[in-house]
Amino acid sequence: RLLETDSKSLRSVNGSRRNSGSSLVSSSSASSNLSHLEEDSWILWGRIVNEWEDVRKKKEKQVKVVAGQWEYFFMLLTSIILKTSQVFLCWLNNSQYFFVQSQPKLCQSAFTMGYQNIHSYFLIVPVLIVESLNFFSQAYSLVDREVGYCQGSAFIVGLLLMQMPEEEAFCVFVKLMQDYRLRELFKPSMAELGLCMYQFECMIQEHLPELHVHFQSQSFHTSMYASSWFLTIFLTTFPLPIATRIFDIFMSEGLEIVFRVGLALLQMNQAELLQLDMEGMLQHFQKVIPHQFDSGPDKLIQASYQVKYNAKKMKKLEKEYTTIKTKEMEEQVEIKRLRTENRLLKQRIETLEKVS
């Protein structure tokens, strides 16, 4: 709005948009200074914002097609989708966010390392945002002591701080942690990440069996290349324009988009990966894949929606993984018991030998 009221701005509008009733965003036509594309975008997203609940229920497929293209409405749509307004008021009323100012510094070395990593990634982040990361991360580590601080979360926090005020970003992050499986991913045990790796590997085995066999022959485990995809929602994989597009869809649809994009990437690069050994594949994931879509994310997004994702099967895989892990824990308990028994028997033998 500031850009539009500035007469020197390219996006200035001769005349203000008028509000229509209780509308949050006006849908009136823009000035001739705006291109037809921008004008259509304003009208489209104005209607989506004003009638979000009806649009989400009746035109879900259309929303999926345009998801990630809400450049002007990022903050407002984030609030609507995640329903953070109530959370925001609750946090402010209880002063939960600001009590960290009177608390001692926690894990300073870990925080410092995280800031260095994120600053090297978000090269265009102002110093103010980097400083906010310190306060932000410590605030959450004090509010949610079980999760504490995880370096992967700093990239998500950094993206949010680039889009909205600090307090609003905090509420969005809390909502993402609670409702989008992120909290389970960032727990010290990272049990949820293990589940995602298991589900994703099963998808590769089903859809790309030849590549799966190649990975196994090279001892190239899924966690070696895909763990950062889930922990940072591709923010450490792609340049910001592509990563933010995926992140927008993630807020709209959840973790499903990470599975889709991940499998789409493997499908596109299958021929090259089959020719490489472990070291070559690592180099390919680190240096080649991040720059394959510099021209734009549309090709990747379209390919990801061609991937078959079966929610029921994913639930079944979750039960299988839980059973496997439960069995492993039982075996570990039994092994520990046998080791203790063996140690006691050795001590008894030594005692008997001394007596003898």
Distance between the termini: 93 Å
CATH H-tier superfamily of the largest domain: putative rabgap domain of human tbc1 domain family member 14 like domains
- The poorly predicted ranges are 11-34, 91-95, 104-115
What is the name of the CATH architecture of the largest domain? Orthogonal Bundle
Examine the coordinates and then state which fold CATH places here, giving the name of the CATH topology of the largest domain: Helicase, Ruva Protein, domain 3
The chain-level structural class is mainly alpha
Total count of strands: 0
Order of helices and strands: HHHHHHHHHHHHHHHHHHH
Shape field? globular
The tally of helices reads 19
The helix fraction, in percent, is: 55-70%
Mean pLDDT: 76
Strand composition percent: under 5%
How would you describe this structure to a colleague?
The chain is an all-alpha fold and 356 residues long. It has 3 domains: 60-185, putative rabgap domain of human tbc1 domain family member 14 like domains (Helicase, Ruva Protein, domain 3, Orthogonal Bundle), CATH 1.10.8.270; 190-309, Cyclin A, domain 1 (Orthogonal Bundle); 313-348. Helices cover 69% and strands 0% of the residues. It is built from 19 helices and no strands. The chain is globular and about 100 Å long. The protein starts with a helix and ends with a helix. Residues 10-29 have a biased composition (Low complexity).
